Every structure is written in C-alpha cells, then in structure tokens.
Amino acid sequence: MNAFIYCFSSEWLKKKHSAAAWLTLAGGLFVPLILLFARLNNKKELYASHTSGQLWKTLYTTGWQYMGILLLPLGVILVTSLFIQVEFKNNTWKQLHTTPKSFTALFFAKLAVILVMLLQCLLLFNVGMLLCGMVPAWIYVQIPLPKESFPLLMYVKGSLLFLMASLPVLALQFLLGLLTKNFLVPLGVGMALYVAGIIGVKWQYGYIIPYGYGALLFARKPGVDTTILITSWAVGYSIVFIAAAYLLYLTKRDKA
Length: 256
Hints:
This protein is an all-alpha fold and about 260 residues long. It has one domain (about 1-250). Helix content is about 75%, strand content about 0%. It has 10 helices and no strands. The longest helix is centred in the middle third of the chain and has 37 residues, at about 105-140.
C-alpha cells in the first residue's frame, strides 16, 4: 500500500506538467459556463424557469446531453492519451523503472491518477451546474432563487452512471497508450471509435461499441432497460481492457 501511495503521489505531480490537468478543468466547467451565458442572455425566460419547479431537472437533462454525449468521451480520450504519453515524451520510462517500486504499483498508480482526474471533472461539472442555476438570481434582483432545492442525489446518481459509461473508454485508451509511443495512434483510434459509437446509437447492437455509451444512455429502446444494459457491458469491457493493459505492461520487453 505504501508503494502505491508513493507512486500515486509521484504520478500526481507529473500531471501538473501536462495539458491533461487543464483539459480536466476546462472539460468540467465548459458546459455549465456555456449554459450560464445562454441563460443570462435570455433574461425574459429566467423568471419562468426559476419558478417552474423544474429548473434543476431541465438543467440536468440539457447539461448531460452535451457533457455525456460529446465532451466527456472526447475528454477521456484526450486526457488519457496525453497522460500516458508523458513518459514517452520525456523519455523517462527507463528512469521510472529503476525506482524500487513494482510494476504493479506503477501501473495502477497511473490508472488511479487518470480516474481521479475524471472524478474531478465530474465534480467540477456538478458544481458548475449548481452555479448555473443560482448565479442568475444573484445577478438580477428580480429573479428569485430556484423554487425547488438542488436535487443532489439525482446529480450524484447521474454522475456515477456516466462515470461507469466512461470507464471502458478510459481503459481502452490506457491500453492503446501503452502499446505505442506515437500519441496520434491512440488518439486517432479513440476518435474513430467515438464516431462509430455515435453512428451506432440507433443500431440494435450499438452497445457493443463502448465509445457510444454516453449517447446510448439517452436512447430509449422499447423493452430494454438501457441503464442496466450499458452499465453491465461497461463493467465487462473495463475489466477486460484493464486486464489486457496490465498483462501487456508486465510482459512487454521494451517498456521504454
């Protein structure tokens, strides 16, 4: 455990020197800021929305449609690919492997840092959505605070659901990042699979493409519990991809 904590701390420091940290911040706040700007520029509808009793539900649906379908999967692709490439870019794999830490600790520490960045992104998104509903009332005196209280449980459940949908994307990008020194390869494959996932949303077997899970969570198919279907496949894919990446990392002769 001490070895893992040491490795995690070291990897956490590395993220400060990559674009991944800034992408996490921008990805979490981008949608709430856009929605807030749009609301502030549509003052006529603010009073009605704040007194409707449906403000938080409306913001939740609108916010996650943009975040879950577009920004979250693309952000995971970019952040994971960028973070894995830090060692290749700085040519520090050999230096890393000379430290008295096991490959297992190093592997899962890197994976954990990316997962924590994903959690940070989701936390920033939820805080941003809360501010998106509150700020207009702070700026315009005639606009009351939202009639209903903030449904924290609904937002937490939604975040966990989209977190699950993102895990196979993170795991596969992690695997692809370990396979090649060329940043464009995992990025290109990830983007191609994302496009395939979006195109396959209306396909009967679209759930076999994990990059479209964010969009599939909004799809309604008769007689199918989309949530259970997607989370089950997401867990299965994540386990398979992480196991494959772990075995690759342990057995790869040239880890530099």
